[in-house]
Write a structure and sequence with these properties.
The complex is a heterodimer of chains A (about 375) and B (about 290).
Chain A: H1 9-12, H2 19-33, H3 35-38, H4 41-66, H5 74-90, H6 95-117, H7 122-142, H8 144-147, E1 153-154, E2 158-160, E3 163-165, H9 171-194, H10 196-206, H11 208-213, H12 218-244, E4 246-247, H13 254-267, H14 272-300, H15 310-325, H16 329-343
Antiparallel strand pairs in A: 1-4, 2-3
Helix pairs in contact in A: 4-9, 4-10, 4-12, 4-13, 4-14, 5-6, 5-7, 5-12, 6-12, 9-10, 10-12, 13-14, 13-16
Chain B: H1 2-31, H2 38-53, H3 62-83, H4 93-115, E1 120-121, E2 130-133, E3 136-139, H5 140-162, H6 164-174, H7 176-181, H8 186-211, E4 213-214, H9 222-232, H10 237-257, H11 266-277
Antiparallel strand pairs in B: 1-4, 2-3
Helix pairs in contact in B: 1-5, 1-6, 1-8, 1-9, 1-10, 2-3, 2-4, 2-8, 3-8, 5-6, 5-8, 6-8, 9-10, 9-11
The chains are: A mainly alpha (about 375), B mainly alpha (about 290).
């Protein structure tokens, strides 16, 4: 077990715990950055997909994991970011300006949603955002002159300094583009969490009343959380659009919203690692299922049968198991395993016990 | 006369939404959780009944299959609470929300495995019969839906406001700890309410399958029932029915009088409007506590 002896406050709020941890993350970064040389084009594409989902997960994590506002409608913001990006590029704006602008515009859209949503709590907020996500589908169809409606839009590659970055022609460069955005967002997130704003997010999540008593402006904090969350989600949406190439109103359906929420729950709510771990599950599950289906078919000598809905069924079952047995997600399980090794043999079963709260109605306040 | 016809068909649809919404409200009233899988429960109830009655499956007589399938749905609801939901006792509501969404995925998958993905109709004694009423033509199923829904809502309303068990359920939701102290078996009450919600979902499923066809994705109808429950205010049984009727009636009128594309938005736009302007529903139960 490593003991970190903290001698001043700056060391306490430093983003990394000690030089060992920093080295490990740098090694991980180097390995991931070298992926284009290690993987073939198919798996590189899948890895890119995972990273994009992770960025979207980070976006939702700000709102749901750290501010405690459950959103079932983040696909709407994915769509907003995606369309904003493409429309700006089609208008002749260079990608390096259009892309940040798409995120900022989505953030502004998030604020306009946040203002009515401020009065809503828990389940009502979830339903409100879910309805938004459903409406977004229809709005895209109705706004056909701008969005291309059901026919959708198509975006080949983008040019960065006269250099074509395209998912199909130059997959390695597209991968690095996504990786840079992911690193940028993650570093921003880490910094946010040690800044006063991030702390007030967590305060609002844990108890609105206490946060208010400590001088946190709850309405402002929630609105900012929506803004940041939606901006990051907008960037993820823009990248998703580039990744998919062609998209229409059905690309960002309410199912994507639900998947996104489930992803961060599986990964672990309230942790940056959780977004990445969840994205790995959601990105590789379809591949894993099709490979294992082939394996089963080979072992028992049958044909591979297509089972519709299998992916979602398995995904739902995994999620149920996580909520029942590991509410803190994959990252929570990792923390427990790590603590077990670090404290061996002094780990106790109830070290991570969560306090139960008995329910009081929200109807009669 | 056209409008009257639209109104009646809207009412019949609205009753189905209302029945699903009743399921939400039942669980919300007694446990303060929302079952996002209620729509899929309804779909399951429909398929269980189809599996029992339709000639290509077991071919039991309809009136025999009816109580059996309701019993199965009740047992499923109880087991669900016993095996899964009860473990979440004392966790946040969000956990239950996410759990039931996942459960919906699993139910849809299992139903697709067992009964396939083709739309199917329930073979029932009311099929094809009509009631003529002053120039209006009503399907016998539509009449059955409306009558059953009204009776069920009334019955549940009386149950909650008059009987000991119903009052115990309300108490358990308002303050679990205090309800324990008053000797209410909170866990058992929760099990009963989930079983009851299963039965209500079964009834909704049977009526829906008699009116039209079901396939595993029918459960997504639950989203419209959400609109109904929210419009009615989540804590009120008559409110849920009223919300369902509002949503059901708006749909055919919107598709008739508003340009295509805008009409399907109508229920959700109404939902958003209600949430923005009256966040606790039209039939609100929230009272501000005074010191």
């Amino acid at each position: 077990m490593r003991i970190v002896f903290k001698t001043d406050y700056m060391q306490d709020i430093r983003p990394w715990k000690d030089s060992f941890q920093l080295t490990m993350y740098l090694i991980l970064l180097v390995i991931v950055a070298a992926a284009p040389w290690l993987l073939d084009d198919f798996y590189l594409g899948e890895l890119t997909n995972v990273l994009i989902w992770a960025i979207a997960g980070l976006g939702l994590m700000i709102l749901t994991g750290h501010t405690g506002q459950v959103s079932l409608g983040h696909a709407a913001f994915l769509a907003f970011g995606c369309y904003a990006n493409v429309i700006l590029i089609e208008a002749g704006v260079p990608f390096l300006i259009a892309f940040p602008l798409a995120g900022i515009l989505t953030g502004i859209a998030g604020v306009t949603v946040a203002i009515p949503a401020l009065r809503l709590h828990g389940i009502y907020l979830a339903i409100f955002t879910m309805a938004l996500s459903i409406l977004m589908d229809d709005v895209i169809v109705l706004a056909e002159p701008i969005t291309g409606g059901v026919a959708g839009k198509y975006l080949g590659g983008v040019e960065i300094f006269g250099h074509l970055v395209d998912r199909w022609a130059t997959p390695d460069q597209f991968f690095w583009l996504v990786l840079i955005v992911a690193i940028f967002v993650t570093l921003g997130y880490i910094n946010l969490l040690r800044a006063p704003l991030g702390r007030s997010f967590i305060a609002v999540r844990d108890s609105e009343v206490s946060a208010q008593a400590m001088g946190v402006d709850v309405a402002k904090t929630k609105t900012l959380s929506f803004a940041l969350s939606c901006a990051v989600t907008g960037w993820a949406g823009a990248l998703m659009g580039l990744y998919a190439g062609a998209f229409n109103n059905e690309t960002f359906s309410v199912i994507i919203s639900i998947q996104l929420l489930m992803m961060i729950v599986i990964g672990g709510l309230g942790s940056i690692h959780g977004a990445f771990l969840g994205a790995i599950v959601i990105g590789f599950l379809p591949q894993f299922l099709s490979i294992s289906k082939e394996y089963v078919a080979a072992a028992f000598g049958g044909n591979t049968v297509a089972i519709p809905g299998l992916e979602f069924g398995i995904f739902g079952a995994i999620l149920i198991c996580f909520i029942l047995f590991e509410p803190m997600g994959m990252y929570g399980r990792w923390l427990k395993i790590r603590t077990w090794f670090e404290l061996f043999p002094f780990y106790r079963k109830d070290m991570f016990k969560r306090q139960k709260s008995y329910l009081k109605t929200e109807r009669l306040r | 006369m056209d409008n009257a016809q639209l109104l009646i068909s809207g009412l019949a649809n609205g009753c189905v939404y209302g029945l699903i919404a009743l399921g939400f409200v039942l669980i919300y009233k007694a446990t303060e959780a929302v079952n996002f899988a209620q729509g899929d429960f309804m779909m399951l109830g429909a398929f269980v009944t189809i599996g029992l009655t339709n000639t290509e499956y077991m071919g039991l007589p309809f009136w025999l299959a009816l109580p059996i399938s309701l019993g199965i749905m009740g047992a499923l609801g109880y087991l669900l609470d016993r095996l899964i939901i009860r473990r979440l006792f004392g966790e946040s509501q969000t956990a239950v929300v996410i759990l039931t969404i996942a459960l919906g995925f699993v139910i849809r998958f299992v139903a697709g495995l067992i009964w396939g993905h083709e739309p199917q109709t329930l073979q029932n004694p009311l099929a094809g019969k009509e009631v003529r009423f002053g120039g209006l033509v009503l399907g016998m199923e539509d009449v059955a839906v409306i009558v059953v829904t009204i009776l069920l809502t009334w019955g549940l309303y009386v149950f909650f406001s008059k009987t000991r068990l119903g009052l115990a359920m309300q108490g358990a939701s308002q303050n679990q700890l205090a309800a324990y102290y008053m000797g209410i078996p909170v866990k058992r009450v929760q099990g009963i309410i989930w079983a009851l919600a299963g039965v209500v979902a079964g009834i909704a499923g049977i009526l829906f399958a008699a009116k039209g066809s079901v396939d595993p994705t029918t459960g997504l109808l639950g989203i419209k029932a959400f609109a109904a429950a929210v419009i009615g205010g989540f804590g009120s049984l008559p409110g849920a029915l009223a919300g369902g009727l509002i949503v059901g009636v708006i749909e055919p009128f919107a598709s008739r009088y508003i340009a295509a594309g805008y009409s399907q938005i109508a229920p959700y736009a109404l939902l958003l409007a209600v949430l923005i302007f009256r966040p606790n529903g039209l039939f609100s139960q929230v009272r501000v506590k005074k010191v």
